[in-house]
TrEMBL record:
Name of protein: Protein BatD
TM region positions: 162-188, 347-367
Signal peptide interval: 1-32
Swiss-Prot/TrEMBL keywords: Membrane, Signal, Transmembrane, Transmembrane helix
Length: 554
């Protein structure tokens, strides 16, 4: 997936979007509703910090009318301390309803008690606004000692959740230690030699004598197993001659082997007398008769043949010339090279095993969680980190928009066009832009004149025009009804388009969603944009949309 920096991506700025809304609202004119049956009053317009002002509203209606008074914190920037019970007075077929709200403020200044919406039989009526002045409480500097202002204290950044990274690091370290231990134990560690390995490392002469000794202590002769006895006897001496005297003895017949020994003796390469060669001939011939003709010599003859073979081994060892210094060095180098090859082979096998374990682990994790998710977890991904980070639930603007986001939305400065000030009382905007990628989330709350209806259609049209003015192509727009968890209904506009990348002709696929709520005197909007193939951003958008809640009381 390609990541595009928002510092270069031509997404419609929140301020420009708000300017569009303001322009639309400035073009809308609706006559104000008049209702002389609603009266409001306050007991005072001047209070000290922390004191209360009582705002009273009186409504005269028929006995069959249904009246809904404001609820909750609808008097912002003033705070609602208490909403008293409704006082009802009946006269003939008319009712007089009176409700009192206790309000306060803990900062000095002048505050506008905003208009309130009172609903009668489903129709909203708006009260007049009032200015409330909050004065500071005088301080007795004689009785109360004054102190200097404390200097600013630098607060260290919170590292909540650091323990997660410590645990992950310890688990990774533990896995590496286990793999390293297994690699050392099965590959690098010098393992103790078995008895067979120790015997294999003995010189040919010592190994032959050891095997003849073992044959002497065997039970072949006791169990009348002469064939096995002579087979092992001839194998020992043939293997010794082939390894020590370099005679092709194992694959030769009796006649061929004796002939080679005689030639070596005549040439002086092997100083064996003719009697020794003749004794060896007799032993080989006896062994052939036992193995192929199934003859059975006496036990004493078999034992004597073993002793003669031992003497032949000794005489052959003594008859061999001493190796020269050059031959000894060549043999040492050869053994050293064999050792290096063996160590290299063990290292390759170990590394291959370790690589196989790692690859197997990656494959298992990839098939279980997805290879893209695995890659993004190891290498990092901006929207994935947002999705899996600590989310924040907050209320933005007035009328408030409540939603959960991966980062807190920052208030945006919005300048109203002169032509919009006649119809718009206040506009509050909040947004967050991801440093990398197209992901953006923003909210706007607009308070208009009480008689104005929220211009949904004009707002939608202006949003699309804003995308087009930035160079977006192939814009697809869909519209459907959107309902919050509490049942507040609004409009959902969503779709996709090819968004341009600055300084190039390249276009990238992006998606957008806009939620619109409102009624007479107010409008609330939520706007989101993200890359089309960013699955983590899509999960973020789905979660945000599932938490959107709005208050429609102005």
């Amino acid at each position: 997936m390609r990541i595009i920096s928002t510092t270069h991506f031509p997404v419609m700025r929140m301020a420009r979007f708000l300017a569009f809304v303001c322009l639309i609202l400035s073009l809308s004119t609706v006559k104000a509703q008049e209702n002389r049956n609603i009266r409001t009053s306050v007991d005072t317009t001047y209070i000290k910090i922390g004191e209360q002002v009582q705002w009273k509203v009186t409504v005269e209606v028929d006995t069959t009318d249904q009246v809904i008074f404001p609820e909750g914190q609808t008097f912002s920037p003033l705070e609602t301390v208490e909403a008293f019970a409704t006082d009802t007075t009946r006269k003939n077929d008319r009712l007089t309803l009176q409700k009192i709200y206790a309000l306060t403020q803990f900062d000095s200044g002048s505050y506008k008690l905003p208009t309130q919406r009172i609903e009668i039989n489903g129709i909203g009526y708006f009260t007049d606004s009032t200015m409330i002045h909050v004065e500071t409480v005088p301080v007795d500097t004689i009785a109360q000692k004054m102190y200097d202002i404390k200097p600013l204290i630098n607060v260290e950044k919170s590292y909540m959740g650091w323990w997660k990274y410590v645990v992950i690091g310890l688990l990774v370290l533990l896995v590496l230690l286990v793999l390293g231990g297994l690699f050392y134990w099965f590959v690098l560690r010098k393992k103790p030699l078995t008895q067979e390995e120790k015997e294999a490392l003995l010189p040919p002469y010592d190994r032959a004598l050891l095997e003849l000794k073992r044959l002497e202590n065997s039970k072949y002769l006791i169990q009348d197993e002469f064939k096995e006895y002579y087979s092992e006897l001839t194998t020992i001496v043939r293997a010794y001659l082939e390894e020590e005297a370099h005679v092709a003895a194992l694959e030769s017949t009796t006649g061929q082997l004796i002939e080679r020994l005689e030639l070596l003796s005549d040439s002086g390469e092997l100083q064996l007398d003719k009697d020794t060669i003749q004794q060896f001939r007799n032993i080989l011939q006896t062994a052939d008769l036992v193995k192929f003709a199934r003859t059975k010599p006496s036990t004493s003859v078999a034992e004597q043949d073993r002793k003669l073979v031992e003497q032949i081994v000794v005489k052959t060892h003594e008859a061999l010339p001493e190796p020269t210094e050059e031959e000894l060095m060549q043999q040492a180098e050869y053994l050293e090279e064999l050792g290096r090859r063996k160590q290299k082979r063990k290292l390759i096998i170990g590394l291959s095993t370790l690589a196989g374990v790692i690859v197997l682990g990656v494959l298992i994790a990839g098939f279980k969680f997805g290879f893209t998710y695995l890659k993004d977890t190891v290498l990092g991904h901006p929207t994935k980190e947002l999705l899996e980070g600590e989310w924040i639930s907050s209320s933005y603007g007035f009328p408030p928009i409540i939603l959960e986001t991966p980062k807190v939305l920052v208030r945006q400065e919005v300048k109203l066009p002169p032509e919009a000030k006649a119809n718009i009382q206040d506009i509050q905007a909040f947004s967050y832009h991801s440093p990398i990628g197209l992901f953006t989330v923003g909210t706007t709350s607009v308070t208009m004149n009480p008689e104005m209806e929220a211009p949904f259609e004009q707002t939608i049209e202006q949003i699309i025009q804003g995308f087009e003015s930035q160079g977006t192509k192939n814009i697809i727009t869909k519209q459907e009804e959107f309902t919050t968890i509490s049942g507040v209904k609004g409009i959902k506009v969503f779709g996709s388009g090819d968004f341009p990348v600055p300084n190039s002709k390249e276009l990238v696929k992006g998606e957008y969603t806009v939620l619109l709520f409102g009624g007479k005197g107010f409008q609330q909007n939520v706007i989101l944009t993200w890359l089309e193939d960013d699955t983590y951003a899509q999960d973020i958008v789905d979660r945000i949309l599932s938490t959107v809640e709005v208050k429609t009381d102005v």
